[in-house]
Amino acid sequence: MRRFHITGLLLICAAFGVPAFAQGAPAAGEEQPEAAAPEAAAPEAAPAEEEALPEFKYSTGDIVLPNKVATLHLGEKYHYLAPAEANQLLQAWRNPPDEDTQGAILPADVNPMSEHGWAVFLRYVDDGHIDDSDAKDIDYDDLLKDMKEGVEDNNAALKQEGYPPIHLVKWAEPPRYDAAGKRLYWAKEISSDDSKINSLNYDVRVLGREGVLSMQAVASMDQIGQVRTDMRPLLDVAEFNEGYRYAEFNDKTDRMAEYGLGALIAGGVAAKLGLFGKLFALLVAFKKVILVGLIAAGSWIAKLFGKKKEEAA
């Protein structure tokens, strides 16, 4: 079974976004070989037991998230894992638990513990109301170039931490914004020097009154057809509850986010000023291409706020 590694932030990982997370071939030395039977085992020696696979308790239908801000209308096509179950899945995939997860969504016909298993992890970040007025002005080709540069610029730091270089290859699906539904979605193809399999990061963000609901899935690029088919309906399953909807924003009492849609794509909560130190502290806890969201955000957001300072001068 392949091992998955995702950032605990997802971020809008990252998330959100998440983190971001990624699926890929195990790093050298990561997969432990099965114990060979001894040539002459002692009579009292018991055979090694295989690691027991976790049993998950799924829910379906209409699911109110633990923080009460939104409801998922899953029907019978998708299953929901509560935060405790989602963390059990994360740990089964050899990842640290995520204290801030709002759970996970899985297609009903997908076994998350299979070789091609995947899941969509949920997070909510209340950084404030995001102004979407710049949606039509974003040049996604330029944004991709800046994100690529950010990834490459930070590969030296990754090497110092013992991680392989990673590369943002292209948009697997260019960013698109549904202004009516306040939903943003995009997908990235990511490669790693220690893996022959490129990763697919598929992201959905739903804008709310003072926060963003993040849905982030990761699979291998050869699964893009399946993931795209299963993710598109997820654009419509999440609905903010009364009091948390984008249209209910009150500019006299509610907070504004310190970033817009472009920064949300580039790295999400990493766009929040003063957060980079905390994010960097997490680097040693995670592996491989999960760091793309953080790294891209670091470079692009620096450029973004640098330009703002120049304009203000």
List keywords for this structure.
313 residues; alpha+beta; Protein Transport Mog1p, Chain A; 7-stranded antiparallel beta sheet; 3-stranded antiparallel beta sheet; 23% helix; 23% strand; globular; disordered N terminus; disordered C terminus
The percentage of residues in β strands lies in 15-25%
**Overall 3D form:** globular
* Secondary structure: helix percent: 10-25%
As an assembly, this protein is single chain
Helix count, DSSP H or I runs of 4 or more residues: 7
Largest sheet: 7 strands, antiparallel
Helix/strand order, N-terminal first: EEEEEHEEHHEEEEHEHHH
Mean pLDDT: 73
| CATH architecture group name | 3-Layer(aba) Sandwich
Radius of gyration: 20 Å
Report the top-level CATH class. Alpha Beta
